[in-house]
């Protein structure tokens, strides 16, 4: 087995997995031995896309101990797969804020760029290096961009993302709107999921100011009202039951059609009200236009004194 591992954040999403696979392919084309891995089980949307485009699910790894590791789509200790303390981080490719807690003994390649997805950065590498992108990889990267940028409606979308999207689609030839709706459906099929599963699917930990360890989840749906009616109470109970581990827990329930989110918070809710400039009623508020955790929720929370 290769000793260079390419891996996304724990609780990986499509962007994490797609950028790992595509980056491993690119490195191999350049003669570097490496392999993409996943940690834990993959989410429904990623599974849907890998099945659809007949791409093999990367092998699972239980611990990074003793490995040379390339991180994609994250750069914080609390989001790394288990065993990271015993790993040698040799490269980071990312599009998130810096938590500043990853230490390396040697200089490494660290490329962080405020684009809509890590997959955009990987696609740029292919184009810049003049390496041919095969149709499956183009489809995979494009699907990950659709996912991370909510069909390019998210405020994280840049002109570079839109240019890369068009270049990729010259190869992939996908009906992007149609695929986007299929993907939304795959990820928003919530009826068969427990509250715990819904909450865990896309949850990330953050170290916020005021010594607050936070868990912030995002659930994306095609229709918000029935969630509020049928699941909000039980979801809040679950969130409250986890407060012994966190100072603040937020669940952002995003309506992809209405393009807005219900933000539900327990714990230090005053931080949320202050940062987001909102009033919570029964621990929640609807925020029109809220689609991106990374761009619209994390920065104001991080900027609290
Ligand atoms: Mn991403």
Would you kindly provide a written description of the structure presented here, covering whatever features stand out?
The structure is a single chain. Helix content is 39%, strand content 21%. By secondary structure, the protein is of the alpha/beta class. The protein is globular. Helix 1 packs parallel to helix 3, helix 4 runs antiparallel to helix 5 and helix 4 crosses helix 6. The relative contact order is 0.11. The protein folds into 2 domains: 182 residues, inorganic pyrophosphatase (n-terminal core) (Alpha-Beta Complex); 108 residues, Diaminopimelate Epimerase, Chain A, domain 1, CATH 3.10.310.20. It contains 11 helices and 11 strands. Strands 3-2-1-4-5-6 form a 6-stranded parallel beta sheet. It has a 5-stranded mixed beta sheet with strand order 7-8-9-10-11. It binds manganese (II) ion.
User: What is the level 1 CATH name of the largest domain?
Assistant: Alpha Beta
Distance between the amino and carboxyl termini:
47 Å
The spatial strand order of the largest sheet comes to 3-2-1-4-5-6
Question: How is the CATH topology of the largest domain named?
Answer: inorganic pyrophosphatase (n-terminal core)
Secondary-structure element order, N to C: EHEHEEEEHHHHHEEHHEEHEH
Shape: globular
* Heterogens: manganese (II) ion
Low-confidence regions: none
Percent helix, as a range, is 25-40%
The percent range for strand residues is: 15-25%
Count the E strands: 11
* CATH architectural arrangement of the largest domain: Alpha-Beta Complex
Number of separate helices: 11
Query: What is the C-alpha radius of gyration, as a whole number of Å?
Result: 19 Å
> Looking at this structure, what is the CATH superfamily of the largest domain?
inorganic pyrophosphatase (n-terminal core)
User: What class do helices, strands and sheet pairing give?
Assistant: alpha/beta
